[in-house]
Write a structure and sequence with these properties.
The chain has about 240 residues and is an alpha+beta fold. The protein has two domains: about 90 residues, Rossmann fold (3-Layer(aba) Sandwich), CATH 3.40.50; about 100 residues, no CATH class. Helix content is about 25%, strand content about 20%. The protein contains six helices and twelve strands. The chain is globular, with a radius of gyration of 19 Å.
C-alpha cells in the first residue's frame, strides 16, 4: 500500500522489524526479499538483554515474553530513531482488546495505551497532534476484516510468505501446542515427531489451486489454536474465501 501511495517515487520511510529471534527462516527470507524488491530501508530491532535471550519459543504467550521480545524493542526503536509515528497492521477484528482502539492510537512516553484518553475519529477526521514525549501508532487496516485482507491480496496479486500455504512438515505436540521442528524447537526423547500438513491456521493443503486462480477455502472459525505458543483467533467473519 505504501508503494502504491507514493508511486512513482520510493517509499519515504523505513520499515521496522521487531525481531524476537524465533521467526521461521521463510519469513526472514521474505523480509530480505521485500527489502530488495522495493528498494526500501529495513530496520531490525532486537532486545539483547540477558533475560530476553533466555526466553524460549514456548514462552511466547506470556506477558514477560511479549514485553521483552516485542514491546520493549519497539519502544527502543522509536526512541533511537526519534520516530513520532509507527504504522502497524493490527485490525479490530483480531481480538477484543483491539476492538476499541482508534486508527490513530496515542501512547505515552512509556508506550502505555489509555483507552479512556483516546480521541474521537468522526467522519474520518483524525487528530495527529502529539504532546511532548508522546508517540503514535497508526493502524490503517483497523476496519478491515480477515476476508478484506485476503481479497486485497488476491486482487492485487500480492506475494505472501510461503508458510501461508500448507505443506507437510515435521511437528511435535508439546504443552497442548503444535510446534514445527526447526532450528528453534528440537524434539525431546519422549516426543513423537509427525509429518503432517497443518490445515488449521494455514491455507489448506489445496492451496496449490490458489496459485491457479481457483476460488478456494482459506480459514474457518475452527482454526483457533496454539501455534508456537501464540493463540490465533478466528476472524469476525468466521470464514475467509477467495
Amino acid at each position: 500500500m505504501a508503494s502504491k501511495a507514493f508511486a512513482p517515487g520510493d517509499i519515504p520511510f523505513p520499515l521496522l522489524h521487531v525481531d524476537t529471534g524465533f521467526l521461521f527462516k521463510e519469513m526472514i527470507e521474505f523480509r530480505d526479499y521485500i527489502e530488495q524488491e522495493y528498494d526500501v530501508e529495513v530496520l531490525v530491532q532486537k532486545n539483547t538483554e540477558a533475560r530476553a535471550q533466555q526466553l524460549e519459543a514456548e514462552d511466547a504467550h506470556s506477558e514477560e515474553y511479549i514485553y521483552l521480545k516485542k514491546t520493549k524493542p519497539l519502544l527502543n526503536a522509536l526512541e533511537k530513531h526519534e520516530f513520532d509515528c509507527a504504522f502497524g497492521g493490527a485490525r479490530r477484528d483480531e481480538e477484543k482488546s483491539r476492538a476499541k482502539e482508534r486508527i490513530f492510537s496515542i501512547r505515552s512516553e512509556h508506550g502505555v495505551w489509555d483507552p479512556k484518553a483516546q480521541r474521537p475519529e468522526l467522519w474520518q477526521v483524525y487528530n495527529a497532534k502529539l504532546a511532548d514525549q508522546q508517540n503514535m501508532r497508526v493502524f490503517p487496516l483497523s476496519n478491515w476484516t480477515e476476508l478484506d485482507v485476503w481479497q486485497y491480496i488476491k486482487r492485487e496479486n500480492l506475494e505472501v510468505v510461503p508458510l501461508y500455504y500448507a505443506r507437510k512438515r515435521d511437528v511435535i505436540k508439546r504443552n497442548g501446542m503444535i510446534l514445527s521442528v526447526d532450528e528453534f524447537v528440537e524434539p525431546k526423547e519422549e516426543e513423537q515427531v509427525k509429518n503432517q500438513a497443518l490445515k488449521k491456521g494455514w491455507l489448506s493443503d489445496e492451496a496449490e489451486s490458489v496459485r491457479k486462480g481457483r476460488r478456494v477455502l482459506a480459514l474457518t472459525s475452527e482454526h483457533k489454536q496454539n501455534i508456537r505458543g501464540v493463540i490465533h483467533d478466528e476472524s469476525s467473519t468466521g470464514k475467509t474465501f477467495f
